[in-house]
Specification:
6 helices; mainly alpha; 84% helix; globular
Length: 188
Amino acid sequence: MSFITQVTISIVVYFIIRVFWKSEKSLYFSSFLAALSYVVIYLITYEVIDIIATIHFMVTGLSLLFLFIAYNEIIIHERKVRKIKKGETLNIENFPIEKGYKVVFKLLGIGLIFLSLALASGFSMQSVFTANLVFKATFTFIAWFIYLITLIGIKFFNFPTKFATRSLFVAMWAVLGAYYMNSFIIGL
């Protein structure tokens, strides 16, 4: 079973729980079970051959998983915000808008932590610093810089969480895209 298939199965686990359990806590429960399912599927498929390689692929898959979960949650959140703006408040439960953006912001932070762990484990797997690792390190540092600037803007300069989360979300997808395009370009 391929790496992408394992992540996809974990995403499906997340979706199934989120669709059938309509509760505020379902996000946390489904995220935890999706992450656990990815780790279990990976260990069943590959076992532990080399501890560094296992850690590297686990945290890489978890970073993809949490980035996708953040993507899904921001889409769900934006739909609810649009319904509220249109005046369709009858079917929407008590919905704190800023809290939703803060949750997505935290999910993106978790994804960034896993992305950084993937970089660190990638460094430990390579004995020579290749251009691929240098590019990935650069993109990870850019992502951390954007995250920290956004966090400082929220905490000290009253930057609205809504705009901060949207900006960070776009930046994280750009960093992830740069990671994979870098691997594709260097692989040619």
